[in-house]
Design a protein that fits this description.
Aminopeptidase; 12-stranded mixed beta sheet; Nonspecific Lipid-transfer Protein, Chain A; alpha+beta; globular; single chain
């Protein structure tokens, strides 16, 4: 499945001399060329296993899996699909998840991405999606389409020899005064109990996205591909009544130095439907036999993992970056979807160069709910759609946005009022790459 292998495509529908932009549909040859372009675009080996094509096709909405073809070769790719995004307060909004964006180095600066993105965002707006989302591989690309950073991610590495645990620790929940229990779970059990547990978990964490059946098939190995890494081990935390409340999945290497284990335990996923479950799982992993270090994987910037360490300096940040980007599509629906910490009103002037979600809006908020609608009242704040995304989920403060020149205060005191209204207890977190 080489990336430069031509596929047979009908003549271009838009212009005989121009690129042919089309959904791959159920054409396996077009899809194979599309996948090959993806692999090249993300610097993966260009050849893959053709036997995986049916499984890959089965996991996608092929009507929204788009390629740009020129002279029978795929030169650009784009895909979107339906997603749910949790907002402060526990509600979920409909999102247009954008992924698999590549343009061949031989075809850049020709407006291909602009055409693909514009068509997709306008279709999403017409479908009634509230926002669009993506994971930005490069910072400078997506701001011009109205996306803005909305949830960041932090990876920690914990030196267990310096963490200060009592050598007699067991790693059991009772060490923490908890009445639940932890045990290993096979992949089949994880596939059974994981989806319902994750649904409870994601309502607690703004920025979290849903995981569909295909995600769980991939994660638990029901569907495996040739470039998958080692299968993870799974730990299940259940409460005193035996109800699953937390799940941790991890891998551990096998490395020894000078007669001592020097193994790195890498967390693939850790979710908890209660603070107790999170704390119990982190404690157990930090007490894991023969592990000398724990890499937490991509966590929220306010993750409580440090709280289980006697010496919290044993955890150091190894990576921190903007992760989930959000693009408002329906400003009124966005602002009315989430909860607010207090009562108040705010008029925002939203600038949107693509004309999808701009205008002036009056937000009337309270802890019980909110309303938002277009208004003729004078604006309190003026900001772009990308800035609005970070304020909406709670990853950014209006005070900081004003300091960086991304927000203008039109009414004295409006910035402070916005921070009081929009603030959240924990910053948003998206656990999954998509």
């Amino acid at each position: 499945m080489a990336s430069d292998t031509p596929v047979q495509t009908p003549p271009a529908s838009s212009s005989p001399a121009g690129p042919d932009i089309r959904a791959v549909g159920d054409d396996a040859d077009l899809f194979a060329a599309w996948i090959a372009r993806i692999r090249t675009g993300f610097d993966a080996p260009p050849d893959g296993d053709p036997k995986e094509i049916p499984d890959r096709m089965a996991g996608m909405d092929l009507s929204r899996t788009v390629g740009v073809f020129e002279e029978g070769r795929c030169v650009a790719t784009f895909r979107s699909y339906d997603q749910e995004l949790t907002v402060p307060g526990g509600n979920a909004v409909r999102a247009d998840a954008v992924t698999a964006v590549t343009v061949s180095s031989t075809h850049r600066r020709r407006g291909l991405l602009t055409r693909l993105m514009s068509d997709d965002l306008r279709a999403a707006r017409e479908r009634g999606d509230t926002v669009a989302t993506l994971i930005a591989a490069e910072y400078l690309i997506y701001g011009r389409y109205g996306f803005g950073p909305a949830a960041s991610t932090t990876t920690l590495e914990i030196d267990l020899f310096r963490a200060g645990f009592d050598p007699r620790r067991t790693g059991r929940p009772e060490d923490l005064g908890l009445s639940g229990s932890i045990r290993f779970a096979e992949a089949e059990e994880v596939r059974k109990v994981g989806p319902e547990l994750h649904d409870r978990f994601r309502r607690l964490h703004p920025g979290t996205i849903d995981r569909d059946a295909f995600w769980w098939d991939r994660f638990t190995g029901v569907v495996r591909w040739s470039d998958d890494g080692p299968a993870p081990r799974h730990l299940l935390y259940t409460d005193a009544e035996g109800v699953p409340q937390g799940l941790a999945s991890f891998t551990i290497d096998d490395a020894w130095a000078h007669g001592r284990p020097d193994n790195l335990l890498k967390v693939r996923s850790l979710i908890g439907a209660s603070p107790e479950a999170e704390r119990a799982l982190w404690h157990h992993l930090c007490c894991y036999d023969w592990a000398s270090r724990v890499s937490t994987g991509k966590r929220g910037p306010d993750d409580p993992v440090r709280g289980v360490l006697p010496d919290r300096r044993a955890a150091r940040i190894t990576d921190h970056w903007d992760f989930l980007w959000v693009r408002p599509l329906d400003t009124a629906a966005m602002l009315s979807s989430r909860s607010y910490r207090t009562e108040g009103e705010l008029v925002v002037e939203v600038r949107d160069p693509m004309g999808l979600s701009g205008g002036r809006f009056l937000l009337t908020a309270s802890p019980e709910g909110a309303e938002c609608a277009p208004t003729d009242r004078s604006a309190d704040l003026t900001l772009g759609v990308g800035t609005l995304a970070g304020l909406w989920l709670g990853d950014r403060s209006a005070t900081l946005a004003q300091a960086t020149g991304d927000l203008d205060e039109e009414t004295p005191g409006a910035v402070v009022r916005a921070d009081v209204l929009l603030g959240t207890g924990r910053r948003p977190w998206c656990a999954d790459v998509f």
